[in-house]
Amino acid sequence: MEYKSFLIKYGEIGVKGKNRYKFEDALVRQLGLALKPLGSAFHIVKEHGRIYVDMDGAYDYEDTIAALQRVFGVVSICPVLRLTERSEDAIAAEAVRFLREITAGEAKSFKVFTRRIDKNYPGTSEEISASLGAVLLDACPNLHVDVRNPEIRLNLEIRNEGILLYALSIPGPGGMPVGTAGHAMLLLSGGIDSPVAGYMIAKRGVQLEATYFHAPPYTSERAKQKVVDLARILARYAGPVRLHIVNFTDIQLYIYEKCPREELTIIMRRYMMRIAETIAKKNKGMALVTGESIGQVASQTVPSLLSTNEVCTLPVFRPLIGFDKQEIIERAEKMGSYETSILPFEDCCTIFVAKHPVTNPELSRIKKSEEKLAERIEELVETALRTEEIVLCEA
Ligand SMILES: Nc1ncnc2c1ncn2[C@@H]1O[C@H](COP(=O)(O)OP(=O)(O)OP(=O)(O)O)[C@@H](O)[C@H]1O
Questions:
Q1: Minimal-distance CA residue to ligand 1 atom 24
Q2: Exposure check for the chain: N or C terminus, fewer CB within 10 A?
Q3: How far apart are CA 354 and CA 58, in angstroms?
Q4: What pTM did the predictor assign?
Q5: Quick one: CA dihedral 141, 146, 151, 157, positive or negative?
Q6: Ligand 1 center–CA 215 separation, angstroms
Q7: Ligand 1: which atom is nearest the Cα of residue 265?
Q8: Nearest-5° Cα angle at 343, 353 to 298
Q9: What integer pLDDT is reported at residue 231 of this predicted model?
Q10: Ligand 1 within 6 A of 191 CB?
Q11: Mind giving me the DSSP string for 340-375?
């Protein structure tokens, strides 16, 4: 069946009262971004509280569905026939053709569901369903009616602007369209967790930018490329992600030189948060996002999180906070980032990591240690900020 139109159903966003149009416009924009790499056959149409993707040329069905399934806010995707002829005979003829094609002669049960939105259309929904059902039974000997549990639910929508026929409803990801819930800065490392954290926050409608700290020559170009690749995978869902790449080497070496080994990770993490927050604030960011989950490593115990949190004034979102590693891995596999995340490239923190990092850091001690950095740290942070590289990562 060569469909020329998809009906995009959205749930959560439909209930937003007066703001509804903003959500619909954001959804239209995100659909456009998702379909852009697939060619120019697509037209996204917002019509009477409905969103359609219409096609006026060749397109790949599977790729199109896969792209639409990555757009947050989409609850389901229904490949539809849009009819302009409104007479009962014309609708019946199209419905017969449609069911013959989708069943390909196989024995199937069906039921017609009619929604009569155009109240001037003659007959009740039940009457229309019954008479169309009778025509279909007559014309297609392979079909029988099952009102309780039909294999095919043939939907007929009679609307003022046209008639819709559809039988398939393909699930979308749900959530809210990106761009409807503010901006946040994701701390994106090359690991498994932070891309998943970004996915989850983007799913709530938040527009993301990302910051990655690298430490050349201790970390390689390939490690950096891996993070760019992860940001591109994230961009399939979140839309284009501006990735800020910050050179952390001198800061890290300085901390290494001045501070106790067991406190290195915490102090480095505190500087990452400070820098990411500064970049966020310069770029409309209203929150930070990390991939931390309680107890996963020494720097993610509750006292450690207290300590890293303390340097931020923006809220820090940690959507994975209560997840086990296995749950995070499953999500990474589902979003398609896992294979890239496990590529074995060095991370800037693992190189300088102590054998026995503190798991219960005392904030006052950490602050005391940081005083030893007073002489040069401001200048080093300023240089790191000034020399950031920005890469626009698109799907
Ligand atoms: N080099 C880095 N650049 C940017 N953010 C980082 C970096 N290293 C760590 N982070 C941030 O700090 C969080 C905790 O990092 P950590 O290395 O302790 O944990 P992790 O479980 O290995 O996380 P991930 O799998 O995301 O790397 C990460 O999820 C990420 O948000």
A1: 191
A2: N
A3: 57
A4: 0.92
A5: positive
A6: 14
A7: 18
A8: 30
A9: 98
A10: yes
A11: HHTS----HHHHT--SS--SS--HHHHHHHHHTTTT
